Structure formats: structure tokens, C-alpha cells
Amino acid sequence: METAEIVKLFRAKAKLIKPSAVEALKGRPDEEVNRIADVLCSRDSPVITESDVHEQTNDAKTPDFVEVKRASDFHPTAKEYGHEFKVQEEWDVTGRSKCSGTLDDFVKYMNDRYQRTKEVLLSRPSRNRVLRIELLDSMQPGNEVRLIGLVSRKLLTKNKHFMLDIEDDSGLTTILVLNDKRVGSTYDKATRVINDEVIAVDIKIGTNLKIATDITWPDVPLKPKKTIEKDLSIAYIADTHIGSMHFQAKSFEGMLKWLNGNGPHKEIAEKIGYLMVGGDIADGIGNYPHQEKELVIKDVFEQYALFNKFMELVPDHIEIIVIPGNHDAVRHAEPQPAMDKTMIAENGRTISLSNPAHVTIEGLKTQMYHGYSMQALIADVPGLSFARPEEISMEFLKRRNFANIYDKNTLSPEHKDYMFTEECDMLFSAHVHKIGYSEYHGCVLMNSGTWLDKTTAWQLRLGFIPTPAVMGVYNMKTGHVAHLDFNKSEAAVQ
Ligand SMILES: [Fe+2]
Predict the structure, then answer these.
(1) What is the whole-number distance in angstroms between the Cα of residue 431 and the centre of ligand 1?
(2) Reduced to 3 states, what is the DSSP secondary structure of residue 28?
(3) Is 186 helix (H, G, I), strand (E, B) or coil?
């Protein structure tokens, strides 16, 4: 079938077809094109991509490898600065995992979370004195106190009041939050309280009940955004999912060429001194039902081998920092240890760290977290959405934890809560495949997109379209961000 006929066929079925998908169908027998059109047009997705076609024709190939040459007029200024980079080892779980899943492990894990977060909450101003829960019985009706504890259960009564079970290291009590839906009310705050987080609750003691008068999260203090003297930038990518037939190899190669000074916006490329890679490097194997049908590289180590080959094409003055995600071949439970050298090649300037990871880049305290827990937060906190991942990153900082809700995340009960978030200057997250940027209390929030050319029916139902082939670049001197779009043949700033 020829181009015009293919376009007409899909238009008649009210679908948009990408030019690369038309190319993939061109010249095939009419019968085959009609069959593929029937299958693809029965799906929710409004756009037909090249990988959709490959999925049906079963002729998707391992990405061809291209040669990337440095442009002769490319003079990266970042090279002159060198690197000032330090890993905060005490936050890296690699080789430090101590738990085996016993009750004692869980007690130590939750206690560590409680103690760390309590320290933060104790430094917050309060009109009420902080009381241990075991001393509540000695209080008189009318007394007001502050409790600091872990939310062990949150319930909504039939009259739409909230009941919060709050637990500290001395006991457990139930607090009532009265139904009062004014914005900013204690009730409004209670709608955002999640299980297993540590909060401060101001209460008024009644004859039978303890009524909440305010709720305080540990949060990070407000501070001015920190910038540096050197004119250096950090690029950030994640969710490459190498091995998937949906991996946009051409766009990824376009990005590598651009990093080497080819194409427009050289002035941005030449300042890049660091590349953060935020997990889901490989698509992996067995991560979801029938994944093998969507894989062009079925051996997970070959998926990493291709990633390593790509990384060799990153200019060698750029330091590469890699953490795993939920698709990668390390344990799924968070915190995840670093991918070892059988996955991420040692080349002197690529560093493989745990998820989450804490590093200092040019004096800026930075946390990297793949972001698996984002789904649980979206489900339990009103107003959060996959479309605005930067708002989820803000919640990580407000709650001082990357993953509080135990039964909705996959967490390993380490004796130290590695998911605790520190005060920082930059926070990088990924996972939801949507690029984002914001600032919160002086901390820069970076969220990366994906390199998969795929919108699942599930994403569409959520009204969410991912951002494939877009790389973020944050300049640490100016404090400006640029989003580089590699979907077309030339890089474009979004
Ligand atoms: Fe992920």
C-alpha cells in the first residue's frame, strides 16, 4: 500500500498516524495493512506510532548503532571547570542492607522514621507544648497540647469526620478531626494526611474525645535558592527503557549528537558538566504480563550493554550519575542498591548509586529518587496528578519522606529510613514519564520525561500524555531550566 492510501485509511478510522508509522507500513500488502489498521484503530490511543506498527508486524529491530562525532566548532566550556562532586555514602544502601524482614526489623525501621521526623517537628514553632501520648490521661478537659506521632490509621466516619490513630514510642491514641470543609481548616489538612507518615497534631482535650485543632507536617524550611559561580549545567534524563520496541533510538541518538555540539542551541550543550540518569535504564524482563512481546532485546544484560554503548558517546568531560528504577535488575524493594558493573559499566566517569541517592554537586545538596511511590501519593492525596510530577516532588519534601505508605509501596524494612528526605538544593525524580520543573522553599525540583514512544490505554484513561524524548537542562549559575525536545530531527527548546 502507498503513503496516500495509508493516510486515507487511518483518517477514515479517525486516527492520526505518525509519518514514521506510515513509512513502516509502506509497501506492505493491502491485506496486511488493513489487518494492522483494524487492530491499532480498535485501541484507545488517538495516535498511531512506528512502534505500534512494529508491534503488529513483529519486525522491530534492535536499534542500529550510530557513530556520533563531536562537532568541530564545539568548545564545551564545562570541560574547563572539572567536577566538584561528592556522594553522601551514609545514605547509600548498597552493601549496607541489614534487614531480613523480621518483626524487629520493622520496629527498627519505623522507629528510625519516627525519631528522624520528630527531630524536625520539634524544631517547628508551636503554641502548645509537646506531650508524650502516655501522659494524655493526666490532662484536664480544656487543655491543649501537641502530639508528634506516626499515623497508624486514618478513617472517615459516617458523619464525614476523620479519626486519626496517632502512635508515638509511648502509646497510641485516637484524634477526631471535625467535619469543617473550609480551605486551610484542620479538616482540609486531614484530607491530605497519609498512613504511616509522622506529623504533629495540636489537640484540645474534651471529656471523652481529643479534638484536632491543627496539623503540621515536618516540611523543609524556606530558604533562598542557591546558585553557584561556575557557569555549569546539569542535564537530566530517565526512563530510557532500553530493550523495549518503543524505545526512541533515533531521538536518543539525536540527543547524544546534540551533547557533542551538533545542531542548534550549542550554547546550552557546552555548559553541561553532569548528566543525571534517574532509573528505568533497561526495560528489564518479566516486569508486566506479556512484556516479552514488546522487547527487541530479550536479555537484560544486553539491554544494559546497549545503554553503556550509548553512554560512551556522551562527551567525556560530562560526569554521569545513574540510579536504578523499578524496571531495573536490582531488588524492587526500596531503597534499591546501586546497579553493579555487570549492568552499568565502569568507565571512570560514570557513577552508579542507590535509589534514592544523596550527592553534592558543585556544593549543591542533591537528592535523586526514581519515584515509584508517586502512584501511592497520587491515589491518597487529593489534587495530585501524573501530569504535574513536580507537585508530587513537593510532597516528598513537605512530608520529609519519599515513601511513607507501607502497604502501597514496596519497601524494605532497613534499620535506617533511607527514604527520609533531607533539606536540599536540588531534587530529581522520574518514573511518571512526564517532564516537569518547579521550585519549592528554595529547592529546585526536576522531573524527567521518557524515551519510550508509547502512551498506554491506562495513561489515556487518566488523561495523561507522557513527554517522550525531552531532556531537561538546569543551569546552576543562572538558576534557569531549558527543556530540549529531540522528537524532530533537530533539537528544539520547548
Ligand atoms: Fe519507573
Answers:
(1) 4
(2) coil
(3) helix
